[in-house]
């Protein structure tokens, strides 16, 4: 072991935590792809969205397209950060997942089933990132070469 490395104590719960982080990252990649595809489809064709004439949160199809496209790109970058183990990526991932859920809630009249699927995925990402905790570092000297870290 190099002198500048600090051993990390791991427990059985750490395996679950890492699994949750990996799950959240995978779901974020899927959500990002879905959002980008929906954004591109809305920008390419005005017929992609169902028209709702009396909707309170009325917006142009182009605005919805750009919203989903930008949100998908940001979620994709946050997913890369979660996979890389960047600390702030977890908070950013939770924030963009919440924003994605809100955007899809506002999109319910246009695409009800698709919006509900994305809301469920966003909630799963928030849950997984909220449950994820990193292994803690030992405060004492490193273990002897033959000792197993717990």
Attribute tags:
DUF7144; DUF7144 domain-containing protein; membrane; transmembrane; transmembrane helix
Itemize the secondary structure elements and their pairings:
Layout lengths: L11 H33 L16 H24 L2 H20 L5 H20 L19
Helix pairs in contact: 1-2, 1-4, 2-3, 3-4
Keywords: Membrane, Transmembrane, Transmembrane helix
Protein name: DUF7144 domain-containing protein
Pfam families: DUF7144
Percent strand equals: under 5%
Largest sheet: none
Note the overall shape. elongated
Distance between the termini: 17 Å
Class per helix and strand makeup: mainly alpha
Number of helices: 4
Mean of residue pLDDT? 79
Give the C-alpha Rg. Answer: 20 Å
Low-confidence sequence ranges: none
User: SSE order in H/E notation?
Assistant: HHHH
In total, the number of strands is 0
- The helical percent reads 55-70%
């Amino acid at each position: 072991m190099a002198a500048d490395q600090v051993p990390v104590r791991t427990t059985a719960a750490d395996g679950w935590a890492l699994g949750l982080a990996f799950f959240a990252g995978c779901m974020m990649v899927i959500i990002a792809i879905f959002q980008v595809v929906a954004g591109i489809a809305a920008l390419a064709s005005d017929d992609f969205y169902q028209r709702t004439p009396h909707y309170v949160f009325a917006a142009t199809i182009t605005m919805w397209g750009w919203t989903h496209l930008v949100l998908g790109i940001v979620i994709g970058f946050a997913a890369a950060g979660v996979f890389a183990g960047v600390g702030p990526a977890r908070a950013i991932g939770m924030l963009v997942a919440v924003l994605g859920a809100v955007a899809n809630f506002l999109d319910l009249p246009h695409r009800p089933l698709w919006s509900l699927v994305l809301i469920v995925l966003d909630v799963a990402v928030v849950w997984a990132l909220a449950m994820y905790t990193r292994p803690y570092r030992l405060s004492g000297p490193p273990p002897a070469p033959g000792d197993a870290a717990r």
